[in-house]
């Protein structure tokens, strides 16, 4: 009985030998264009440090214009729902930045 079991095993091993050798090549990919560049306003560093690890700036830039309270709740949602490790001390700066960023984009920096 033993040779009967050994034969298919041998055939299998022989087949392994004939497998083509693995070769590696250099490859490069082109990432999609993300024009999202956060405007240079106070608090930008806090936003980069706390917010851009998970998504690109365009996630923030492409939001409809919303009031401060909404930004506060979005930042809160990032923390509670998505477990974003946001520095609590930086939250006011981040919210100020997000409000200013939208004011800036609207071309009306004087709006409170
Ligand atoms: C731990 C990862 C993580 C971090 C850090 C993070 N987010 Fe998010 N964020 C998410 C996920 C997940 C979503 C939902 C899926 C998506 O839209 O990409 C999201 C969605 C959003 C949205 C889309 C609108 C919405 O309400 O869902 C905005 C705006 C946003 N985040 C802003 C921020 C800001 C501002 C910060 C910094 C305070 C931040 N995020 C930090 C994970 C994160």
TrEMBL record:
The keyword Signal applies. Keywords: Signal. One of its GO terms (molecular function) is electron transfer activity. PROSITE patterns: PROKAR_LIPOPROTEIN. Residues 1-19 form the signal peptide. SUPFAM superfamilies: Cytochrome c. This is Sulfite:cytochrome C oxidoreductase subunit b.
């Amino acid at each position: 009985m033993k040779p009967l079991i050994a034969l298919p095993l041998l055939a299998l091993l022989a087949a392994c030998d004939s497998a083509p050798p693995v070769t590696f090549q250099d490859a490069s990919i082109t990432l999609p264009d993300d024009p999202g560049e956060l405007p240079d306003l106070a608090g930008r560093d806090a936003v980069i440090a706390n917010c851009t690890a998970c998504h690109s700036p365009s996630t923030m830039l492409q939001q409809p214009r919303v009031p401060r309270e909404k930004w506060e709740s979005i930042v809160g949602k990032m923390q509670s729902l998505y477990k974003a490790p946001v520095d609590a001390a930086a939250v006011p700066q981040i919210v100020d930045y997000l409000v200013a960023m939208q004011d800036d984009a609207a071309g009306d920096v004087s709006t409170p």
